[in-house]
């Protein structure tokens, strides 16, 4: 039976957007309704934001590092013939790792044929990589050393859902390296749609919210993750990436490989939805916030510990009232944008930046409560096995 991509002849990017529309919309709603919990007046300090960055960093670092491993590996010969189905038909048997039993758990670098190597080399865009920007934001906010940052990131990576997601990334890329396109499309394009909305919101929050002792030494706001060092603030980088993505995926991928990329994109959204659910329990935004609040008050919760590390303080009530009103306007504007967009949920769809004076926050993520080893269990899983 022909795949949907074969039936429609859609570009890979469009196929991804259509296939992920339901889970993308679901994730957007989860994030929108949690934004007020991470910004004034609900949040007294940026500890939730720090916790979010600690969860995002391992995700970006994982697939970006694996991509570099592919490009650094020796490039095998290629005859230039592209088959109709799967990449292993043009690879040597040793390169067809996705058909080898038990290979997913083996400690090896991704092995690819010359065709896929050429594809990933052409699409790879170092200017989009976010690992260093995320680390810089965390260190700017916390004043942590490189060693302490690594320790905190390792701790975050032990949370159950995030750990499963990182394992999924490693296994999928080692078995089917071309699925790196899914991670690039979903996680980079998000920075130019909802990410722009979030950045504009964060940048306009009352400066005292960010003005910790650490930031007094570095007045720049910790928004490197959403910012690109280019004349057009990354728009020209995005345009170049999208052009090369379309060219390479259209000419170098088989229909079976395109289907792999689409399915992996769906998994990315499903995992992100589960991470939000996991962090509801960790950050006290889930169904039992009273219990989590008691834990934090006792000094054992992760939010309490991060706040102490940051040395943060209570903020002025007048500022909080001002931000409460602005945030209400911001949230209303975001909802209207989503409604006018018809819930398309396309990863690369553009959204206008807000014009409200303040408010907003990045998606609310966090990390496992390592002090008591709590794990969060879910009544229902979004991921399909």
Please describe what this structure looks like.
InterPro entries: Haem_Oase, Haem_Oase-like, Haem_Oase-like_multi-hlx. Residues 334-385 are annotated as: Disordered. This is Heme oxygenase-like protein. One of its GO terms (molecular function) is heme oxygenase (decyclizing) activity. With 385 residues, the chain is an all-alpha fold. The protein has a single domain (4-340), classed as Up-down Bundle (Heme Oxygenase, Chain A), CATH 1.20.910. It has 15 helices and no strands. Residues 78-107, 287-321, 342-346 and 349-381 have low confidence and may be disordered.
Task: Reconstruct the topology from this structure.
Elements: H1 4-8, H2 12-19, H3 21-34, H4 47-72, H5 114-123, H6 131-142, H7 146-156, H8 160-175, H9 180-189, H10 194-203, H11 235-252, H12 255-283, H13 289-297, H14 302-310, H15 317-340
């Amino acid at each position: 039976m022909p795949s949907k991509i074969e039936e429609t002849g859609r570009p890979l990017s469009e196929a991804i957007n259509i296939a992920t529309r339901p889970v993308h919309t679901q994730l957007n709603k989860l994030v929108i309704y949690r934004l007020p919990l991470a910004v004034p007046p609900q949040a007294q300090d940026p500890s939730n934001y720090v916790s979010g960055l600690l969860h995002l960093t391992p995700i970006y670092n994982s697939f970006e590092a694996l991509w570099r491993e592919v490009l650094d590996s020796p490039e095998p010969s290629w005859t230039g013939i592209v088959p109709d189905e799967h990449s292993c038909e043009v690879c040597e048997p040793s390169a067809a790792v996705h058909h080898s039993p038990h290979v997913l758990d083996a400690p090896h670098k991704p092995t690819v044929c010359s065709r896929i190597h050429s594809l990933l080399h052409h699409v790879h865009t170092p200017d989009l990589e976010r690992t260093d920007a995320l680390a810089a934001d965390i260190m700017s906010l916390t004043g942590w050393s490189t060693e302490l940052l690594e320790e905190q990131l390792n701790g975050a990576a032990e949370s159950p859902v995030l750990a499963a997601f990182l394992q999924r990334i490693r296994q999928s890329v080692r078995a089917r390296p071309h699925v790196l396109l899914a991670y690039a499309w979903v996680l980079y394009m998000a920075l130019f749609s909802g990410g722009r909305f979030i950045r504009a919101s964060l940048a306009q929050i009352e400066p005292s919210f960010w003005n910790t002792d650490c930031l007094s030494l570095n007045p720049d706001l910790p928004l490197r993750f959403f910012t690109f060092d280019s004349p057009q603030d990354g728009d020209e980088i995005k345009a170049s990436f999208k052009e090369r993505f379309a060219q390479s995926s259209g000419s170098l991928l088989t229909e079976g490989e395109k289907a792999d990329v689409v399915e992996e994109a769906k998994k990315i959204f499903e995992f992100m939805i589960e991470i939000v659910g996991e962090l509801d329990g960790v950050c006290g935004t889930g169904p039992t916030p009273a219990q989590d609040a008691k834990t934090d008050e006792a000094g054992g919760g992760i939010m309490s510990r991060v706040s102490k590390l940051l040395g943060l303080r209570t903020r002025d009530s007048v500022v909080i009232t001002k931000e409460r009103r602005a945030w209400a306007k911001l949230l209303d504007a975001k909802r209207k944008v989503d409604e006018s967009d018809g819930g398309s949920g396309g990863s690369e769809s553009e959204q206008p930046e807000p014009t409200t004076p303040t408010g907003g926050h990045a998606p609310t993520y966090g990390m496992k409560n390592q002090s008591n080893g709590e794990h969060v269990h879910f009544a229902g899983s979004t991921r399909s096995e």
